[in-house]
């Protein structure tokens, strides 16, 4: 029997957009809701930030909070600016568009840290037409709904989280395990932490 054991560390993810009042706090909120629903919030450390500090201390845009609330997400994050120390504090830095990527990259303490930076749409499965997550700030209701559609696509995508990143070990060796969606994966993480064997089946709850 192969027994799965998780190392005692959290996966630390930072979502980044421009002002940290629309896209990135929504991504944080959606991800947080999903892992809490799966009962594995202790496995993750989640945060968001902006490359522009003009909204520091503000709650997310009221339109984004309203759209998110309609889907069951509570956005309570207070905006902050991205800083160089975030490269040391997080495992993955996920940005919303190319401008964010460039701004974040300029703050990297060394080139090797750029391997932590990902474009959000790299993980999309169902919206291949989008090469970035559009800023809904100057858009109507449809703009905020589109952003949430993209965020849910990625957070539910198996490609956002895998067991290799989580440090899953099988007989002492890292493996790259992928599930149908993030919720399935989180359920598997919980089971693995309890020492269930590799034959356990995980049913999707979405």
How do you describe this structure in short?
The protein is α/β, with parallel strands linked by helices and 206 residues long.
Provide a descriptive summary of the structure in words.
Helices cover 33% and strands 14% of the residues. With 206 residues, it is an alpha/beta fold. The strands form two sheets. The chain has a four-stranded parallel sheet, sandwiched between helices. The protein is globular.
Calculate Rg over CA atoms. Answer: 17 Å
- Rounded to the nearest angstrom, the distance between the terminal CA atoms is 30 Å
Estimate what percentage of residues fall within beta strands.
Answer: 5-15%
Strand count, sense and barrel status of the largest sheet are: 4 strands, parallel
Low-confidence stretches: 1-7, 158-183, 193-206
Question: What's the average pLDDT?
Answer: 79
Q: What is the number of strand segments?
A: 7
Order of helices and strands: EEHEHHEHEHHEEH
Portion in helices: 25-40%
Tell me the number of helical segments per DSSP (H or I, 4 or more residues long): 7
**Inertia-based shape:** globular
Strand order of the largest sheet: 3-2-4-5
Structural category is alpha/beta
């Amino acid at each position: 029997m192969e027994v799965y054991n998780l190392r005692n560390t959290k996966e630390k993810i930072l979502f980044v957009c421009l002002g940290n009042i629309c896209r990135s706090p929504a991504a944080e909120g959606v991800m947080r809701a999903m892992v809490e629903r799966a009962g594995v919030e202790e496995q993750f450390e989640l945060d968001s930030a902006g490359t522009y500090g003009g909204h520091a201390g503000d709650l997310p845009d009221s339109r984004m909070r309203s759209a998110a609330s309609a889907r069951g997400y509570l956005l309570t994050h207070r905006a902050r600016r991205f800083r160089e120390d975030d490269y040391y504090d997080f495992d993955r830095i996920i940005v919303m568009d190319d401008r964010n990527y460039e701004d974040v990259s300029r703050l990297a303490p060394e080139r090797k840290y750029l391997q932590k930076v990902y474009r959000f749409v790299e993980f999309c499965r169902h919206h291949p037409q989008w090469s970035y997550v559009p800023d809904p700030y100057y858009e109507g209701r449809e703009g905020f709904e589109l952003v949430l559609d993209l965020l849910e696509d990625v957070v539910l995508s198996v490609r956002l989280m895998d067991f290799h990143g989580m440090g899953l070990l099988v007989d002492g060796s890292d493996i790259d395990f992928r599930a149908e969606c993030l919720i399935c994966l989180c359920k598997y993480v919980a089971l693995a932490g309890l020492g269930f064997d590799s034959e356990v089946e995980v049913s999707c709850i979405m």
